[in-house]
UniProtKB/TrEMBL annotation:
GO terms for biological process: bacterial-type flagellum assembly. Residues 338-420 form the Flagellar hook-associated protein 1 D2-like domain. It comes from Pandoraea thiooxydans. GO terms for molecular function: structural molecule activity. This is Flagellar hook-associated protein 1. It is found in: Bacterial flagellum; Secreted. Belongs to the flagella basal body rod proteins family. Residues 616-655 form the Flagellar basal-body/hook protein C-terminal domain. Keywords: Bacterial flagellum, Secreted. It holds the Pfam family FlgK_2nd. The keyword Transferase does not apply.
Length: 657
C-alpha cells in the first residue's frame, strides 16, 4: 500500500464522516417537520487492492442516503387517521344538536309544558279573556321555539354544505400536489441515476396523509414508483402525473343539499353515491347529515305537524266564547315535493297529510316507469306500488298517512323526493289572533226532561271528528219506553246508533228502538256524538242532545285540549308529543356519547400508530446527538490518518536531500 493509497483511505473516511454529519444535522433540523422521515447514510467497503501477499482495503464508499420509511406503518397511520377524522367530524357536528335540544331554555320541553299549563288555567275559567290570551301567547312562544330550532338545524345544514365544498377543494389540491410530486420524483430519479429524492418522497407521503384526513384514499404504487390514488368505489383521483377532480354539486334529488360529483377523464361530472365515501371528514359530514341531521329535522317537523293537526282538529270539535264552532289555532306548510333534476319538464306531483299520526321521520322517493308508480321509504326501503295515484294500503289507508296526487302527467323515468315533515317546524305559525275564538266548550249539550220521574241520568256528551260532517242543527230527543222490552227511541232518527254495554257494541239502524236495561250503564254513539246513559228512567222519561250555543262556563273541550299533552297522537298512536320529544333528545344524547367514546378510542389508536411509526421513522434527538459525536470522532480520526500519511511522505522526501 502506497502513501497515496493511505491518503485516499483517509479522504474516503473524511467524506463518509462528512456525509454522516450532514445527514445527522439534517435530521436534527427537521425533527419538527411534519411528514419528515429520518435519514441514514449507507456505507460499503471499498474494493480491496492486491498487494502480493493479500488484499489491502481501499477505504469506505457512501452507498447512499437512505430514508427510514415503513410503508406498512404509514398505511396503519393513514387508516387510523381517516377513521378518526370521520368519527371526530361526526361527533363535532352531532354535539351541536345535542346542546341545542338539551338546552333548558332553547329546547321544546318548557314551551310544551307552558302551553298545556295555560290551557289548564283557561279551562278553569273559560269565560276569562285574559287567561284565553295567555293560551295564545303560549302557543306563539311554542311556535317560535319550533321555528328557532328548525332555523338552527337549517343553519347547521348550510354549514355542512359549506364544509363539504371546502373539503372537496382541499381534496383536489392534494390530488394535484401528489400528481405533481409523482412527476418531480421521476424527473429527479432520472437525473440522479435512480437515487431516491427523499425530500420529495416525504412530501408526497405527507400529501397522502393529509388527503386521508378528508377522505379514505387507496394508494397503489406503480412500477415506476408513482402513486395511483383511488377513492370511493374506485374513482381515480391520481393516475401517474395526471389528477382528476371532485366537485361539490347540488344533489339531483334535493338541490338544497350539497353532494359530491366526480369529473373523470371524459370531463363529465357524475354523482358519487354518498354511501361509497368511506373515511375522512367528508364521510363524517355525509353520514352525519343522512343519519342524524335530516332525521332530526324530520322528527321536529313531525312533532310540529302533528301538534298543529291535533290542536286544530280538537279545537274544531268545540264551541268558542261566541257560541260558534272552533277553527284552526295553528297553520303549517304541506309536505315538500322536489322533482329530480333529470325529470321531464312537465311532470308534477303534490302530497298532503291524510293522517298525521301515521307520519314517520323518513323521506320518500316516488318513481314512475311509464306504467307503475313506486313509493319508497328511504329509511328502510319499504315500497308501495300501483298504476295510479294516490297509492293505498290493502285496508284503504294511505302509506304512512301520505296522500299523493299527480298535478301534471309524468313521463317514464320521472322521480320525486317527498319530504313530508322537513319544513313543518320552520313554518309552524299561530293563525288565531282572537282569544274568544278558542273553543273551550263542548259542541253538544245534554239535558234530562223536566218532567222526568225516574233516576235515569245522561252525561255531558262528547263528539269526534266525524261529527263535523253533519253537526246538529236541532235537538235530538231520546225517549224511554218501559216495555217490555225496555227501549230508547231517537227523534229525529237521522243516524244509526251504536250501543255499548259491558264492552260489547251493537249497532242499530236509524229509527230502530235501542234496547236499554235500567240500571245498566250504556254508551250511545250516533252521528259522531257519544253520550252515556245510566240509572233507571221511568216510562216516558226523555233526554235531549242539543247543539251547544254557549261557551262561557263550559270547559269540556278545553280539558280535551289539555289532555293532548299525554294523548297518543304520534308514531301510529303509540306516543305523545312529550314521549316523542324525550326520545328524540335521548337518541341524540346517546349518539353524541357514542361518537365521543368511539372518536376518543380511535384517537388513542391513532396515537399508538403514530408512535409506532415515529419509533421507526422519527428523529430521536438522543440518538442523533450520539451520532454527531461518533461522526466527529470519525472525522478527526480520518484527518489523523491523512496527517500521518503526509508526515510519512515528508520523511521520504527528506531521505533524498
Amino acid at each position: 500500500m502506497s502513501i497515496a493509497g493511505l491518503t485516499s483511505i483517509g479522504v474516503s473516511g473524511l467524506d463518509a464522516a462528512q456525509f454522516g454529519l450532514t445527514t445527522t444535522g439534517n435530521n436534527i433540523a427537521n425533527s419538527g417537520t411534519a411528514g419528515y422521515n429520518r435519514e441514514t447514510v449507507g456505507y460499503q467497503e471499498g474494493v480491496g487492492s492486491f498487494a502480493g501477499v493479500g488484499y489491502l482495503g481501499t477505504g469506505v464508499q457512501v452507498s447512499g442516503v437512505n430514508r427510514v420509511y415503513s410503508q406498512f406503518l404509514a398505511a396503519q397511520v393513514n387508516q387510523s387517521q381517516t377513521q378518526y377524522s370521520q368519527l371526530n367530524t361526526y361527533y363535532q357536528q352531532v354535539q351541536q344538536i345535542d346542546n341545542m335540544l338539551g338546552s333548558p331554555t332553547a329546547g321544546l320541553s318548557s314551551s310544551l309544558s307552558n302551553l298545556f299549563a295555560q290551557l289548564q288555567t283557561a279551562s278553569s275559567a273559560p269565560g276569562d279573556a285574559a287567561t284565553r290570551q295567555t293560551v295564545l301567547g303560549a302557543a306563539q312562544s311554542l311556535a317560535t321555539t319550533f321555528q328557532s330550532l328548525s332555523g338552527s338545524l337549517s343553519q347547521l345544514s348550510t354549514s355542512v354544505n359549506g364544509q363539504i365544498g371546502d373539503d372537496v377543494t382541499q381534496v383536489n389540491s392534494y390530488a394535484k400536489q401528489i400528481a405533481s410530486l409523482n412527476q418531480a420524483i421521476l424527473t429527479a430519479q432520472t437525473s440522479s441515476n435512480g437515487a431516491a429524492p427523499n425530500a420529495l418522497l416525504d412530501q408526497r407521503d405527507q400529501a397522502v396523509a393529509s388527503l386521508n384526513q378528508l377522505v379514505q384514499a387507496n394508494v397503489v404504487k406503480a412500477s415506476d414508483g408513482s402513486y395511483n390514488v383511488f377513492i370511493g368505489t374506485g374513482q381515480t383521483l391520481v393516475m401517474g402525473q395526471q389528477n382528476f377532480s371532485l366537485k361539490a354539486v347540488p344533489s339531483a334529488s334535493d338541490p338544497t343539499q350539497t353532494t359530491i360529483g366526480y369529473q373523470g377523464p371524459s370531463g363529465t361530472t357524475v354523482a358519487v353515491p354518498e354511501g361509497s365515501i368511506a373515511g375522512g371528514a367528508l364521510a363524517g359530514l355525509l353520514s352525519f347529515r343522512a343519519q342524524t341531521l335530516n332525521p332530526t329535522q324530520n322528527a321536529l317537523g313531525a312533532m310540529a305537524l302533528t301538534l298543529a293537526d291535533s290542536f286544530n282538529g280538537q279545537n274544531q270539535l268545540g264551541i268558542d266564547l261566541n257560541g260558534q264552532p272552533g277553527g284552526n289555532i295553528f297553520s303549517v306548510a304541506p309536505p315538500t315535493v322536489l322533482a329530480n333534476a333529470a325529470n321531464s319538464a312537465t311532470g308534477g306531483v303534490s302530497a298532503t297529510v291524510a293522517n298525521a299520526a301515521q307520519l314517520t321521520t323518513s323521506d320518500y322517493t316516488l318513481a314512475y316507469d311509464g306504467t307503475n308508480y313506486t313509493l319508497t321509504r328511504t329509511s328502510d326501503g319499504t315500497t308501495w306500488s300501483g298504476t295510479s295515484l294516490p297509492l293505498k294500503n290493502t285496508n284503504g289507508t294511505y302509506p304512512d298517512g301520505l296522500q299523493l296526487s299527480v298535478t301534471n302527467p309524468l313521463a317514464a323515468g320521472d322521480k320525486f323526493t317527498i319530504l313530508p315533515t322537513r319544513d313543518a317546524a320552520s313554518s309552524l305559525a299561530v293563525t288565531m289572533t282572537d282569544p274568544s275564538k278558542l273553543a273551550l266548550a263542548g259542541a253538544v249539550a245534554t239535558a234530562k226532561g223536566s218532567a222526568n220521574t225516574g233516576s235515569g241520568a245522561i252525561d255531558a256528551g262528547s263528539v269526534d271528528a266525524t261529527y263535523l260532517a253533519a253537526p246538529l242543527s236541532s235537538p235530538v230527543t231520546l225517549t224511554y219506553n218501559g216495555g217490555p222490552p225496555s227501549t230508547l227511541s231517537f227523534s229525529p232518527a237521522g243516524a244509526a246508533v251504536t250501543a255499548t254495554v259491558n264492552g260489547t257494541a251493537t249497532t242499530y239502524a236509524a229509527g230502530t228502538p235501542v234496547p236499554y236495561t235500567p240500571g245498566t250503564p250504556t254508551q250511545l254513539s250516533f252521528g259522531g256524538i257519544t253520550v252515556n246513559l245510566s240509572g233507571a228512567p221511568a216510562n216516558g222519561d226523555t233526554f235531549t242532545v242539543s247543539p251547544n250555543t254557549s261557551g262561557v262556563s263550559d270547559s269540556r273541550n278545553g280539558q280535551l285540549l289539555s289532555a293532548l299533552q299525554t294523548a297518543k297522537t304520534m308514531a301510529g298512536g303509540t306516543a305523545s308529543f312529550t314521549d316523542v320529544y324525550a326520545k328524540l333528545v335521548s337518541d341524540i344524547g346517546s349518539t353524541t356519547s357514542q361518537y365521543q367514546t368511539t372518536s376518543t378510542a380511535q384517537s388513542n389508536l391513532l396515537k399508538q400508530a403514530t408512535n409506532a411509526q415515529s419509533s421507526v421513522s422519527g428523529v430521536n434527538m438522543d440518538e442523533e446527538a450520539a451520532n454527531l459525536l461518533n461522526y466527529q470522532q470519525m472525522y478527526q480520526a480520518n484527518s489523523k490518518v491523512i496527517q500521518i500519511a503526509s508526515t510519512l511522505f515528508d520523511t521520504i522526501l527528506n531521505l533524498n536531500p
